């Protein structure tokens, strides 16, 4: 680690080393557009281990050649005149929001949240807020508690919309706004932490990787030398999968994201049975539901330096009690999250 770091800092300014630079993780993260404001750092104070050399840092997912972009004529966006309008149920980007009922007091950020067409106590018409975020004060742009506690998808405005880049409903679209550190843990390989305090509801980053078909994902599972462990890097984009959908791309087996060899820092986030993050499906253009984003948000305040974790089996019923069966335990991976409510096994 020390040697590779010295090589990077003292030699990778030289032109002749292009081939070597391509494989240097520090050079890869330096190319990120956000590098100067929100850098990714890599540290190892535990041992001499390096991140595997065949891993490549990227700041967005890449689509496999056989995954065609949606045809232009199917792309649609909202036609809101003012950016501010994109918080309300009248914004067409929010037409599929499932639960846009009034929010709880805990989330009251001082703005009006009410049923559409109702009047407030002063007789003013109040529009129904439908977007997922707080709009005012210190929590502006943070996910509301009600959404955080749900497994609902997040619908955002995007490049085909009439609203501008500063529209409040473009939090994931605007990208990561936090410096993150990939660090060597004492017992679980690499992990990730924030180098600043993180607030409940704050967007962390997307899970990135190669977006591939289900067939290709299965081929990679079968080929992987870590066999069933390959699953830990493959995320199915199945939030909108529906055998009855009129969109054939939602009827078939979903696309998957493989972050094992090409990904961003979130690929190094470890599991905890008492996690501080959760993944949400995020949609921009409604014609791209089959290729939705996977966005990490903080589910509680996280002080700087605390390891970021999510529950690898969040929402999956583990009631078959395999973890109590000594025979099955032999094939299971022991969980080292150290939390009080640890289930004992990862899978
Ligand atoms: C997605 S990777 C996370 C990054 C990984 N630590 C690394 O060094 O590349 C998942 C792997 O990390 C390890 N891991 C993650 N959470 C763990 C936990 N709570 N207990 C034990 N191992 C864990 C397991 O080896 C798992 O297969």
From TrEMBL:
Q: Which InterPro entries match?
A: H3K9_Histone-Lys_N-MTase, Post-SET_dom, Pre-SET_dom, SET_dom, SET_dom_sf
Record keywords: Chromosome, Metal-binding, Methyltransferase, S-adenosyl-L-methionine, Transferase, Zinc
Occurrences of domain SET (ranges): 178-313
Q: Where in the cell is it found?
A: Chromosome
> Which residue intervals make up region (Disordered)?
99-120
Please list the residue ranges that the record marks as compositionally biased, kind Acidic residues: 99-109
Family annotation (Pfam families): Pre-SET, SET
Q: Which residues form a coiled coil?
A: none
GO MF terms listed in the record are: histone methyltransferase activity; zinc ion binding
Q: Which GO terms describe its biological process?
A: methylation
Looking at the record, the residues that make up the Pre-SET domain are 76-175
Q: Does the keyword Metal-binding apply?
A: yes
Q: What is this protein called?
A: Histone-lysine N-methyltransferase
């Amino acid at each position: 680690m020390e040697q590779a770091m010295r090589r990077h800092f003292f030699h990778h300014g030289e032109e002749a080393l292009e081939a070597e630079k391509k494989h240097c993780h520090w050079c890869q993260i330096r190319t990120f557009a956000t590098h100067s404001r929100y850098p990714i750092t890599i540290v190892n104070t535990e041992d001499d281990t390096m991140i595997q050399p065949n891993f490549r840092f990227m700041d967005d997912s890449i689509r496999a050649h056989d995954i065609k972009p949606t045809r232009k004529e199917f792309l649609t966006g909202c036609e809101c005149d003012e950016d501010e309008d994109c918080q309300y149920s009248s914004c067409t980007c929010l037409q599929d929001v499932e639960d846009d009922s009034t929010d709880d007091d805990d989330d009251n950020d001082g703005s009006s949240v009410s049923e559409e067409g109702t009047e407030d106590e002063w007789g003013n018409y109040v529009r129904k807020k439908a977007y997922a975020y707080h709009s005012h004060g210190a929590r502006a742009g943070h996910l509301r508690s009600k959404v955080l506690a749900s497994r609902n998808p997040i619908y955002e405005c995007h490049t085909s919309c009439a609203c501008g880049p500063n529209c409040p409903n473009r939090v994931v679209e605007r990208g990561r706004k936090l410096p993150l550190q990939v660090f060597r843990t004492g017992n679980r390989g690499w992990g990730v932490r924030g180098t600043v305090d993180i607030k409940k509801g704050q967007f962390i980053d997307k899970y990135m990787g190669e977006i591939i078909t289900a067939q290709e994902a299965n081929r990679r599972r079968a080929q992987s030398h870590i066999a069933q462990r390959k699953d830990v890097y493959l995320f199915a984009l199945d939030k909108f999968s529906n055998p009855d959908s009129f969109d054939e791309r939602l009827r078939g087996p979903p696309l998957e994201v493989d972050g094992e060899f090409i990904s961003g820092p979130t690929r190094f986030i470890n599991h905890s049975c008492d996690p501080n993050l959760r993944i949400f499906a995020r949609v921009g253009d409604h014609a791209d539901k089959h290729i939705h984003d996977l966005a990490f948000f903080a589910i509680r305040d996280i002080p700087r330096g605390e390891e970021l974790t999510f529950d690898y089996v969040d929402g999956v019923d583990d009631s078959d009690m395999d973890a109590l069966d000594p025979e099955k335990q032999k094939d299971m991976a022991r969980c080292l999250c150290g939390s009080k409510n640890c289930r004992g096994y990862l899978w």
